[in-house]
Amino acid sequence: MTPHTPAPAAGLRALFVHAHPDDESITTGGTIAALVNAGVEVRVLTCTLGEEGEVLGEELAGLVADRADQLGGYRIGELRQALRSLGVDRPRFLGGAGRWRDSGMAGTPSADHPRAFVRSGAAAVDELVSVLDEFRPHLVVTYDPDGGYGHPDHIRAHEVVHEAVEEAAHRPRRLAWTVTARSHLAARHSDPPAHLRHPEEGELPSVPDTRLTHRVPLDEAASAAKLQALGAHATQLELTCSGDGTSAFLALTNGVLQPVVGVEWYVAHDLRPDRAGYLRCASGAVHLLDGLGTGRS
């Protein structure tokens, strides 16, 4: 199928709800850039500052949580730069910057912090309800029920989004979960750097292609914007190109290579006509904006 962005898109509003700085660029950066370029009003809402993240290299290693605990503030700057590359005006944080803290990986003591996002309860839902009723998005994008790869904050973001949608006066027309197509993980770096490696079979989470419902193909401008945004998150990830320069890969602090693909995929649900919940969209490969229509409603 020929990549396209449905027209007209002007008048549509899209809200992306992410757990930490860098998630917006890794999973949906190309989509954000493509929608902005198509005239969609896009906001990115980040739930934590990513305080519990690791850091690549030694220069900024002292920022981590068990040392200076300054990583969250530093990552605001990375997020601002990344969003600027994608065409978004500024970072926005659920409840304000620092309201909730990165909970860390499952089973770690950081989840017991009183501000940990996994402990956010009804307050986080109330904050998102306010955003939904003020911004009135047609499209809301977040993670699947497993949070993509099981991170507690990603799972919590999914929960908060779905609870808020049920409570808000405004109901978006479509909820979409950002996912990785299983077929994309077959890509291999032709000459990987010695300190990085390809994933083992099943190591990286993905969704069977038969479950996918929507996609956003990235043109040259959107692909370039995504790469630039990824590069802004230098404490968290490394970019590398294949030997022939035709494909790009990223690696997080675990050193596992992931392809930076030219299509971003989703599993989406549409609002039922009777407003009694959402229906899973049929599997396929239509554009994420298809069927949303236009207007300021």
On the 0-100 scale, what is the average pLDDT? Answer: 94
CATH class placement: Alpha Beta
CATH H-level superfamily title = LmbE-like
Strand content: 15-25%
SSE layout and pairings?
Blueprint lengths: L12 E6 L4 H15 L3 E6 L24 H16 L5 E2 L27 H15 L3 E4 L9 H16 L6 E6 L34 E4 L2 H13 L5 E4 L6 E4 L5 E4 L2 E9 L6 E3 L5 E2 L10
Helix pairs in contact: 1-2, 1-5, 2-5, 3-4
Describe the structure.
With 297 residues, this protein is of the alpha/beta class. The protein has one domain (13-287): Rossmann fold, CATH 3.40.50.10320. It contains five helices and twelve strands. The chain has helices spanning 23-37, 71-86, 121-135, 152-167, 220-232; strands at 13-18, 41-46, 92-93, 139-142, 174-179, 214-217, 238-241, 248-251, 257-260, 263-271, 278-280, 286-287. Strands 1, 2, 3, 4, 5, 6, 10, 11 and 12 form a nine-stranded mixed beta sheet that branches. A three-stranded antiparallel beta sheet has the order 7-8-9, with helices on one face. α1 (23-37) runs parallel beside α2, α2 (71-86) packs antiparallel against α5 (220-232) and α3 (121-135) packs across α4 (152-167).
What is shown here, in short?
The chain has helices spanning 23-37, 71-86, 121-135, 152-167, 220-232, and strands at residues 13-18, 41-46, 92-93, 139-142, 174-179, 214-217, 238-241, 248-251, 257-260, 263-271, 278-280, 286-287. The protein has 297 residues and is an alpha/beta fold.
